Amino acid sequence: MPVETAALEQLVGELVAGHPFGALLTEPEAQRITAALGIGTPPMAVVTSVAEARRVAIHGSRVVVKVIGPAHKTDVGGVRVVVNTPDAIADAFESMAGTRGGFLIAGFVDHEATDEILAGVRWTDAFGPIVTIGIGGVGVEDALSPAVISRAVADLTEGSLASAPGSTRLMTKGRGRAPTASVSALAALARRLLDFGEAAMPGQLVEFELNPLVFTASGPVALDALAIVGSGVKPNGRQRPVEAIARQLEPESIAVIGVSESMNPGRMIVRNILASGFPADRLTVIKPGMDRIDGCACVPDVGSLREPVDLLVVAVAAHAVPDLIDEVIACGNARSIALISGGLGERPGTEEAANRVRRAIVASQVAGGSPVVSGPNSMGIRSEPGRYDATFIPAERMTPADKQSHPVGLVAQSGAFTLSRLDRLPWLQPRYVVTVGNQIDLTVGDYLEHFASDPEVLVAAAYIEGLAPGDGDRALRAARRIRGRGGVLLWYRGGRTAAGAKSAASHTAAVATDDLVAQMLGAAAGVLEAGSLEEFDDLLRLAVLLRERSIGGHRLGVVSNAGFECVAAADALGDLASAEFSKETRDRIEALLAAAGLGGIAGAQNPLDLTPIAGDEVYSAVVEAVLDDPGVDLAAIGCVPFSPALGTVPWELADAGSLPRRLAALAAHPTPWVAVIDGGRLYDPMADLLEASGTPVIRSMDRAVRSLAKFSGSRRPGV
């Protein structure tokens, strides 16, 4: 039944009038909303005396007598199911007379054959309204996780609801009973609730919940309802001019302010921009009393720029930022700003200055002006297509990097996070590296949207300390667009615990979002979620280096020269399955082993332990045989590198017959695989050689298999 939006909004407006934010509507009031949504409710009557209770006329052999006030009536003994006689109703009324609130008498809905469910919609700042459907009733806290749905991740068709993360028991059977409801019925209910949430939240309500709700022959019936009054304020509909991000990332002109004659962060930014290939005649330094710095023309102030620049990099002290932003807006000489200045809005006593900057930016954009701003507390931006590096870290402080570009957009609230990733993965050269700091204007979600619109970005990676309003929704939509062209969005969300949220807030003035909602909606959108910083690196390796490989299944082949790695691989399988080698593969491996004198020592099983005796040639030949097996969808190839039978130490790597060289030659094999090198710093050159060939290297077998399981699950068709 379609929802009459205007009439429904008017009804809810009348019900919440006069209630403060966070107040609960009474059950009869909430059930009026239920009925207006076209969802069934039991016949009911509100009574205040025993005499009224005796006069209630409700059809049926039993009725439910309950208090109106508390949200959890059962917990306070406020619910009685009694036979439908005046005496029984009166006795129940009197037995609960000491409980706060009024009393409600409702018809009893027989639902012994199916489960009670919970169905609700609530407002989240990050994702907007989200619908939750799961096992309900008094056992809701002990039930499996519910399905969680938002507009960004579900088209609310039968298929989309059936694939939603969380409990699917409702759509099959619950507690050994008949199916609770058909998928189509649950999809229709979810659609109705989501439409309602988009119309009424968070202004009128912030939460509306039906629990328990049961499905009868005539459709869903809500046995109880809860509604929490909203803030009275609709979400901010202001649209930031995010199209300016394109100019920020690929500018025709740049200016830098905060540059010293001696070396300081601003001067380092100028040198990094020039070293990246940006033309000196398109880079202006704003510094009074100077004609040129590092070959770039100088002007005394922002107003003296000959024309508006696409990007202004601000590296002045935090206390000078508010006046400078006012000046930039007044003269209109910058279309975008990278605000490097640290401490603004982050240190005690700077809150008003940060608010002043924010108000100025909003006022300018509402009036149709510019600029857009990233930061403050930002490390800056690097853009390969823009030919600039506007960060202030000297190149000699970083591990020397390869020059090959990768189709990666990396955005983070922490500049140090991006530097650590790039230094740990020196072969990785992202298309974009953006640090947003405190997100005073542009947010992680804004940049993810931009990455999704850039067909050259196939891997979007984000470090998030707190999702800004609407950013969860933007991220999910970006993930679906990127996945649609064969790519992936990877995120690590900090602040998922109370302590983490407090630390994130002190770091970037951010507030962490609800962890379970973000986790489940992210899974529905195909987001790769890293559970640790180490796993972020591992998954980023796989996402970049295996992005062109198709993964047709979940059967894993494992080769190692150490028994403990074979055991670790089996223990870490998760959703993967151990591949069964074909007879042809077994015969091939056994012949190789026999020829190498290993026939009585190693066998052709999976995982395959070659033992430390195996040399370079047989090792690589067995690996190739495993990769060639049609029953192997992906592989983890381990090498505990200490055996003298293998050429794994730095002085042996130049030999074309060494195991690292032989394995590097298999990097482009159609079967995706990852190398595992469980050794110390002596074997870093071996890892570097393999990773330079395009083979992901992970330094322990359990990490490798867990990451492969997570990554392959996001890549397999239909997953």
What can you tell me about this protein's structure?
With 719 residues, the protein is α/β, with parallel strands linked by helices. Helices cover 33% and strands 20% of the residues. The protein contains 22 helices and 30 strands. The strands form five sheets. The chain has a seven-stranded mixed beta sheet. It has a seven-stranded mixed beta sheet with strand order 19-18-21-20-22-23-24, sandwiched between helices. Strand 11, helix 8 (265-275) and strand 12 (283-286) form a beta-alpha-beta unit. The longest helix has 18 residues, at 183-200. The radius of gyration is 31 Å and the shape is flat. It starts with a helix and ends with a helix. The model is unreliable at 166-178 and 503-513 (pLDDT under 50).
Topology:
Elements: H1 5-16, H2 27-36, E1 44-47, H3 50-55, E2 62-67, E3 79-83, H4 86-95, E4 103-107, E5 117-124, E6 128-135, E7 147-150, H5 158-162, H6 183-200, E8 205-216, E9 219-222, E10 225-229, H7 244-249, E11 254-257, H8 265-275, E12 283-286, E13 292-293, E14 296-299, E15 311-314, H9 321-331, E16 336-339, H10 351-366, E17 372-374, E18 380-383, E19 388-391, E20 406-412, H11 415-424, E21 430-435, H12 444-453, E22 459-464, H13 471-484, E23 488-493, H14 498-508, H15 515-525, E24 528-529, H16 533-545, E25 555-560, H17 563-571, E26 577-578, H18 583-595, E27 608-609, H19 616-628, E28 634-639, H20 659-664, E29 673-677, H21 684-692, E30 697-698, H22 701-715
Parallel strand pairs: 11-12, 11-15, 12-14, 15-16, 16-17, 20-21, 20-22, 22-23, 23-24, 25-26, 25-27, 25-28, 28-29, 29-30
Antiparallel strand pairs: 1-4, 2-3, 2-4, 5-6, 5-8, 6-7, 8-9, 8-10, 13-14, 18-19, 18-21
Helix pairs in contact: 1-2, 9-10, 12-13, 13-15, 16-22, 17-22, 18-19
